[in-house]
Amino acid sequence: VQLVESGGGSVQSGGSLRLSCQASGYTTRLPVMGWFRQAPGQERERVAYIYTSGGSTFYGDSVKGRFTISQDNAKKTVYLQMNNLEPEDTAMYYCAAGYASGPLVASLVAYWGQGTQVTVS
How far apart are CA 106 and CA 114, in angstroms? Predict the structure, then answer.
């Protein structure tokens, strides 16, 4: 399974970006996909995830109301729309996928993308 992210970049505070994560190399639907982020010197933080079958979503407290996770099952792609970005959102963002039926925590992630950098100034 491969996860390929795109859409990162640099933006001013208050701006928006949309990240994409395209999955490939599997025949069975990945039950849960999401996004984590990691800033230099900090632990990896869970941002949001979505159950690919029912569409239920979860958001970290720091991004609620600003970020939206969505999916296009036909394209095997998960998106993260990030609005009203703040400098504190600056980090490497990683796409993640797993088989857990419960919350997507880092220890249960089966596949990671290579990461895409988001910088907010």
Answer: 15
Q: How many CB atoms lie within 10 A of CB 61?
A: 6
How many other C-beta atoms lie within 10 A of the C-beta of residue 23?
A: 22
Task: Reply yes or no on whether the pLDDT at 100 is more than 90.
Answer: no
List the beta bridge partners of residue 112: 96
Res. 72 pLDDT band, cuts 50 70 90? very high
Cite the DSSP H helix spans in the chain: none
pLDDT in tens, 74-84: 889 999 999 99
Residues 6+ apart with CB under 8 A from 42: 91
Only one residue has tokens 């095997």, namely 76
User: 92 pairs with which residues across the strands?
Assistant: 38, 117
Give the residue carrying structure tokens 């596949």: 111
